[in-house]
Design a protein that fits this description.
The complex is a heterodimer of chains A (220) and B (91).
Chain A (H helix, E strand, L loop, with lengths): L1 E5 L3 H11 L6 E6 L2 H11 L3 E5 L7 H11 L4 E6 L4 H10 L3 E4 L4 H12 L7 H26 L3 H11 L4 H8 L3 H15 L4 H10 L11
Helix pairs in contact in A: 2-3, 3-4, 4-6, 7-9, 7-10, 8-9
Chain B lengths: L16 E5 L2 E5 L7 E3 L1 H9 L6 H12 L3 H17 L5
Antiparallel strand pairs in B: 1-2, 2-3
Classes of the chains: A alpha/beta (220), B alpha+beta (91).
Amino acid sequence: VRVVIADARPLARAALRLAVDGRSGISVVADVGDAESCLKACRDAAAGLAVVAADLGPDGAGHLCARVREELPDTRTLVVADGPAVDRVLELLEAGADGVTVADDGLDALLDAASVVADGHTYIPVHLLGTVLHSLIDRRRSDEEAQRRYRELSARERETLALLGRGYDAAGIASHLVISPQTSRTHIQNVLRKLGVHTRVEAAAFAIDNGFCDLEGGAA
Amino acid sequence: MTADLTQARPVRAEGVTVERTPGGALAHRAGGEAAVALNPTALALWELCDGQTTAEEMVLAVCALFDVDEPRARGEVFDALTEMRTVGLVA
């Protein structure tokens, strides 16, 4: 498999190149220091795999993986994370990485990961698999609970929630929805009660975190 | 035939201890019977057997993580859970 290595640290990428080139069917065709160079090298060399340092600047490895997935469908991506932070691993996978390996797991793990990812599969370190799955399940439960609470809101209350999420206060909501300030406050109280939160800030955070800031029907 | 475990909330059997190995793990049962080898996926599923997580939740998480279709993931997860039940790793 033709591999491009992307790491902002020249010594790190040179060392990685020396370590993996010629092993496990890997042929390193380029080592680069930034995302744009990585995209260009993958495209020019028809690389099958990009091995990317998680902290590759300026937008991070996740952003690069998303672009590779979008622009270079024949190139797979493997991110080398600094540590076993489950949230970070999930974030990278959701951004578009095909696999994540942890630097502390060593060279054999990286070679194994490269092989798995190049073969078209997803790679996650074995020791993180259970925790990552558990985190996904927790997140799904949280999403379902948020949807359940959102469904309890009336159409007007959903608009109120969306406006809270956009930073409107009671007067602003009243003006925007062309209702009285008292009615606006009533909607806000109903939203807080149905969502089970105590403050407008909590309601706004709920709206932002769960993507409920759009007004239905496309009204701005 | 794959058992329908959709609503099951499997729980790890008492007394089972796990020893990680390079290829997954060895599960030692309370009665001192021979250890059972678990591959990485089976080990991850066993870890999820907390009595609260449903088998279907496990299926959906596997689908999301490995980008596999639901019927295939359901078959593999249910088969693994059934096997772990059979050998006494899961109640």
